[in-house]
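TA notes, week 10

Several of you asked for a full example with nothing omitted. So below is the full record: structure tokens for the whole chain, then the designed sequence directly under it. When grading your own attempts, check the secondary structure regions first.
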């Protein structure tokens, strides 16, 4: 037998892993600088690691109490009711839960282009159709309500990413409000704040009391350094009280991840250090990289380098892994994640060498 027709379901293309690249180059993974997946260069909080180790001892038990504990902790943090917090396996899992809660077969969603690949994937998994709105490089990837609304045609779900991946630009608060006002009442606006910790712009979560058609997604994968544990959540409208129980995969997140996330929320110093270093690094990259860059509010910088895949490939040969953004439809760019100070300096120096070398090659 065959699967259903999956031809529209493009596979997710992740940044390359350190082990994989190290093996190819015959290097020790520790010698590589990996700045391709917007991970936290400091790793998880030591408190989260300790909690994860302790939780592993009880891994034979289904996670129930920890799920309730994390949900309540997040609800208190955001000033929401616990049933407005949908804990999930990564924010990607939350995107799935939102799609399950909203899409009937054939419903259409509106996604940014370029943008995060999982929005259209998740919609298609849930039998949805996909339309796009442009986030234009020619306009510095500026995000406004009008740009979205110009493309909007009554879609069931509209995704916005602030800070945007891979551009780093934000949708200002007043623009989000204009978007919420501009769409139909039964269009859900999903504000993806995977990089929300890295900006001073207040979270869209503050608008949940006012707007019944808003959901916010957040993750422990970036500023909290727990990408490997797959834990995130959505904040949803008050009226959705009983929907989570009807759409989530039972025991939505694993016990180790839940306890690690609870501990991570108590380590403000770790998040602060991570955020401050990312802010330093994105300024450093913007100032010192010999290529035009875009203003970023996230823990990464998009740079216009000419031939993105050539630059990424040559940098990788020298032990620096950055993200070739060809899969985002930006073949002339690379995205450089913010590393530690040392790694960021090394990455910029290597990229500048590569850019100079490619320049000489072009002149020769
Ligand atoms: C990283 C990321 C996510 C979520 O990642 P998870 O690891 O699934 O939590 C969501 N949206 C964007 C734009 C991202 O870059």
């Amino acid at each position: 037998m065959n699967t259903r027709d999956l031809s529209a379901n493009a596979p997710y293309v992740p940044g390359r892993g350190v082990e994989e690249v190290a093996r190819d180059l015959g290097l020790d993974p520790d010698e590589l600088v990996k700045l391709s997946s917007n991970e936290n260069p400091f790793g998880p909080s030591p408190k989260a690691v300790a909690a994860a180790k302790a939780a592993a001892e009880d891994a034979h038990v289904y996670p129930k109490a920890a799920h309730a504990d994390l949900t309540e902790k997040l609800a208190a943090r955001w000033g929401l009711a616990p049933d407005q917090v949908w804990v999930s396996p990564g924010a990607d899992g939350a995107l799935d839960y939102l799609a399950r809660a909203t899409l009937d077969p054939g419903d259409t969603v509106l996604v940014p282009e370029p943008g995060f690949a999982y929005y259209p994937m998740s919609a298609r998994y849930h039998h949805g159709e996909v339309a796009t709105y442009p986030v234009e490089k020619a306009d510095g990837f500026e995000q406004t309500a009008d740009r979205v609304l110009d493309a909007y045609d009554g879609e069931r779900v509209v995704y916005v990413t602030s800070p945007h991946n891979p551009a780093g630009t934000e949708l200002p608060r007043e623009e989000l409000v204009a978007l919420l006002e501009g769409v139909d009442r039964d269009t859900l606006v999903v504000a993806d704040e995977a990089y929300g910790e890295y900006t001073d712009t207040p979270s869209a979560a503050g608008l949940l009391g006012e707007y019944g058609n808003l959901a916010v997604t957040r993750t422990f994968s970036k500023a909290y350094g727990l990408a490997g544990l797959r834990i995130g959540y959505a904040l949803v409208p008050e009226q959705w009280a009983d929907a989570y129980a009807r759409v989530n995969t039972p025991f939505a997140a694993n016990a180790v991840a839940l306890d690690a996330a609870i501990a991570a929320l108590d380590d403000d110093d770790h998040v602060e250090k991570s955020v401050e270093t990312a802010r330093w690094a994105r300024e450093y990259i913007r100032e010192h990289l010999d290529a035009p860059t875009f203003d970023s509010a996230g823990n990464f910088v998009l740079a216009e380098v000419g031939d993105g895949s050539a630059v990424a490939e040559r940098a990788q040969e020298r032990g620096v892994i950055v993200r070739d953004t060809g899969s985002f439809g930006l073949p002339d760019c690379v995205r450089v994640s913010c590393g530690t100070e040392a790694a960021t300096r090394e990455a910029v120096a290597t990229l500048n060498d590569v850019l100079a070398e490619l320049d000489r090659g072009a002149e020769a």
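The chain is about 40% helix and 15% strand. Use that as a sanity check on your answer.
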